Amino acid sequence: MRYLSAGESHGPCLVAVIEGLPSNLELNTENINRHLARRQQGYGRGGRMKIETDKVEVLSGLRFGKTLGSPLTLLIKNRDYDNWQEVMDPYNPAAKGKEGGAKLTRPRPGHADLAGALKYNHQDTRNVLERASARETAIRVAVGSVGRELISCFNINIYSHVVEIGGIKARDMNLSFQELFSKAESSQVRCADPEAEERIIEEINRVKEEGDSLGGVFEILVTGAPTGLGNHVHWDRKLDGRLAGALMSLQAIKGVEVGFGFDAARFRGSQVQDEICYNEERGYYHKTNRAGGIEGGLSNGEKLVIRCAMKPIPTLYKPLQSVDMETKKIHKAGVERSDVCAVPAASVAGEAIAAWEVAQAFREKFGGDSMEEVKANYENYMGIISNR
Q: Which of 179, 176, 216 is nearest to 196 (CA)?
């Protein structure tokens, strides 16, 4: 199962083609749209969220609400394109610039602007930033939501919540998954700790006044994943490696850890490994889950726990020093419309990315051309391992 996406931030649309879905998967586009709406929320977002109301359109691969087994094509229109048609015209260069329409030659520190312009021999960094923009995550959320629809049929669920923004950390609230998710969903910054939420909002307001930005850390939890997703045989099929690589591809993510993560390096082995238990009702299970649900590249039946560190957004309203690529003189970096803090939105995008990777591993494990065949393979496997 794979997909390709295309589209620019201020172009007409974003599009993706998904290949490898089984037939007869019921697909509710309202569920996809709900996750797209969640991605657009969060305190500290910029002005574009007031323009876009993302909705997915299915162009192929779906009939009467069920997948056909042929490629599924998804499209999200960019409503802001109406304001950028001259600037983003595919044929004729803009005679005069509108918002951001003039040639951009002052790359922003922390963005792909400079490296991308040098790599592709562009004189205008807009040719880079349009695709490097986090606007691209909208179509990834749509794609991941399709993967989510698939694995939810097998009681695999994904949650996320923010654990830190701007150095302000949430307390461990000792909540159930449903309580944690419910509190995160009702929070303006997707943080289940109301005291931390209040302090974070105050910090976002202060940093906004200073023309700066904030990063943070969010956590993704996956429940219900069966033992055996991923592979210990080949390095590129290890589940933790695939999740880490995919999540690192999310804009501004600079670190990913599974389970204990970096803390595992600071303790003795006896304090890190998860002891194995067995009873008739549960079968094999672990006393603890410091491994984050993955051992040797394989899911081990416990919940998956992944944390992502997001750097502060590099577009600043009080820009840092840069160099004009035409004159080679020192200038302030260019300024594009941006967020102060996008950690809450990134956590939703992270959910979708994790959902897609888990769905891919699930398809590799259970195969099948139709949902009926997939379910039969899944039930057979679960019956085998429950009797071991």
A: 216
Tokens for 234, please give them: 């080949």
Q: At 311, which amino acid appears?
A: K
Give the phi and the psi of residue 331 in degrees, each rounded to 5: -145, 165
Domain boundaries, the chain: 2-386
**Greatest CA separation for the chain:** 74
| Distance, CA of 31 to CA of 54 (rounded, Å) | 12
For 96, other C-beta atoms within 10 Å of its C-beta total: 8
Helices marked H in the chain: 29-39, 113-120, 126-132, 137-152, 177-186, 194-209, 239-248, 269-272, 343-366, 371-386
In angstroms, what CA-CA distances link 374 with 16, 50, 368? 24, 41, 5
Arch. (CATH architecture) of 2-386: 4-Layer Sandwich (3.60)
Residue 258 and residue 240 in contact, taking contact as beta carbons nearer than 8 Å: yes
The residues facing 69 across adjacent strands are: none
The Cα–Cα gap between 159 and 350 comes to 10
Identity of residue 95:
A
Contact between 258 and 244 under an 8 Å Cβ cutoff? The reply is: yes
Judged on CB neighbours under 10 Å (0-12, 13-18, 19+), 34 is: exposed
Q: How many CB atoms lie within 10 A of CB 194?
A: 14
pLDDT one digit per residue (tens) for the chain, 388 residues: 999 999 999 999 999 999 999 999 999 999 999 999 999 998 876 655 556 689 999 999 999 999 999 999 999 999 999 889 888 988 877 655 444 456 899 999 999 999 999 999 999 999 999 999 999 999 999 999 999 999 999 999 999 999 999 999 999 988 988 899 999 999 999 999 999 999 999 999 999 999 999 999 999 999 999 999 999 999 999 999 999 999 999 999 999 999 999 999 999 999 999 999 999 888 999 999 999 999 999 999 999 999 999 999 888 888 899 999 999 999 998 877 678 999 999 999 999 999 999 999 999 999 999 999 999 999 999 999 988 8
C-alpha to C-alpha distance for 331 and 325, rounded to whole angstroms:
10
